[in-house]
Amino acid sequence: MSEPTASPELPLTGGCNCGAVRFEVRAPFESAGYCHCTRCQRRTGAAASPAGVADSDAVVVISGAEHVRSWEPADGWPKSFCVLCGSHLFAGHPGEGDGVGVRLGAIDGDPGIRPQWHQFVASAPVWEPLPDDGLPRFDGRRPD
């Protein structure tokens, strides 16, 4: 299993593609992984979505909150994005609930953690084989 790298200096910073939304992650990520669910595939246009999980109070939108919109499926975490450029930012809402999944690609620089698992592998697309990386795999949602 991949281990986190040395802790980066906090807070971590990140944002959307157009720069309208900026956020900070003020505590180290608790875990990170790849989601292969169909929603993540359609939302990102990729085979999987890598995200770091942080305490919801540790994720703070510091500018551009008015540009963040969320799609809230009935049976999953809210999916938040920048309404101006479409960049995917979070699963969950910063400051609400138990945790927030922060898209690792939205972080500036090294997030200080590496993906540690694959979830929803039963939904992984046939056109992109799962890598032989030794990480645990879960057919559905990873157990907490």
UniProtKB/TrEMBL annotation:
Keywords: Lyase, Metal-binding, Zinc. The keyword Nucleotide-binding does not apply. Residues 12-118 form the CENP-V/GFA domain. It comes from the Bacteria. Belongs to the Gfa family. PANTHER family: CENP-V_GFA DOMAIN-CONTAINING PROTEIN-RELATED, GFA DOMAIN-CONTAINING PROTEIN. This is GFA family protein. The lineage of its organism: Bacteria, Bacillati, Actinomycetota, Thermoleophilia, Solirubrobacterales.
